[in-house]
């Protein structure tokens, strides 16, 4: 059964951490799943977020899974997150999309929803 994890919660939310936990479990069991970061969930891809040394960094934890990490481009840009290409296109002086994450359009979310058997939103 394929699963889509739609992460809409901010990185400070316990729900964002639950999404990571489920992704780890699905990955360990080699089950088919995809993720999509949308709304406040895109903030996990912000490379400029500071996390105290005594706490886990959600961005780093997602990166260690070594899976595809698509992020809604519109939601990201509206929250100050950009990759190099979009920074140039929109005359933004810096870019801060974390390594391993990629900005994509909502068409990709629509395709993922259509091709999955189970959708879980966090």
TrEMBL record:
Name recorded for this polypeptide: Sulfurtransferase complex subunit TusD
Domain of life from the UniProt record: Bacteria
Family: Belongs to the DsrE/TusD family.
Matches recorded under NCBIfam families: PRK00207.1 (NF001237), sulf_tusD_dsrE (TIGR03012)
Native organism taxonomy: Bacteria, Pseudomonadati, Pseudomonadota, Gammaproteobacteria, Moraxellales
Pfam families cross-referenced by the UniProt entry: DsrE
Keywords of the record: Cytoplasm, Transferase
Places the protein is found: Cytoplasm
Keyword Cytoplasm: yes
The gene coding this protein: tusD
Matches recorded under SUPFAM superfamilies: DsrEFH-like
